[in-house]
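Progress report, Aim 2. The chain analyzed during this reporting quarter is listed below.
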Amino acid sequence: MRTLRAIARLLHAIAHALRGWWIIRTKFQWMDDAARGREVERWARRMLQVLGIRLVVQGTPPGEGPLLLVSNHISWLDILTLHAARHVRFVSKAAVRHWPLIGTLSTGAGTLYIEREKRRDAMRVVHHMTEALRNGDRIAVFPEGTTSDGRVLLPFHANLLQAAISAGVPVQPAALHFVDAASGQASLAPRYIDEDTLVSSLWRVLRAPPLAAIVRFGEPQDPHGRERRGWALSLHADVMALRDAAQLEEDAPLSGPARPGTGT
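Predicted structure tokens for the chain:
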């Protein structure tokens, strides 16, 4: 039964992904940025439901205006979860742009790409991030630079924080946590590390009991007077504290009805 359920979820997920591809190809050119953002949020929330994942949002998601969001990084599900809570532009490795179907969805959602193997490319991306932030965009980064199993928080790289300092926009910490929806215990099903592939990670999620994706938002922090390396250390501690506080609570806001400040 678990395998049959996983196959049914997979087919439904593929159909929903294709629907997203069709919307990007046929409708996005006629939409303004706000309308595109709302469409991405709706699509991401529905995809989580298709995968059997309940969205739990704690704290206040980013509001209107430019902002840099920093979060821990566990899985390919992180981007989907944050998009469902509040549309932001992500900084991702350049290879994603060329992935079949996923690349189109990622680019349509406004992703900025970085060549991680090229050290100088980070400066190019910081420049583009700074420009986008000055133009009013919300951008999200994973300062760990790679995924972990969720039980540890890797050191934060400070380079991308320079964009917020240069643009004079706030940085908001956030933490992601995936748990069994019934027990509230941490789940390793979404992990995407070491020998894991996207296919193996996806299949674990599809076969797992219903999950909950918890995203806990902290308070935005003013960039003035900040130095990026010291700020990276401080944000590391903030994200760790948010992650440790993220619990599946009975009265936590769930995905579904529109919430103030989410743009839905």
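The beta strands are 53-58, 67-71, 89-93, 112-114, 138-141, 171-180, 211-217. Residues 173 and 218 are 5 Å apart (CA to CA). These observations will guide the mutagenesis work planned for the next reporting period.
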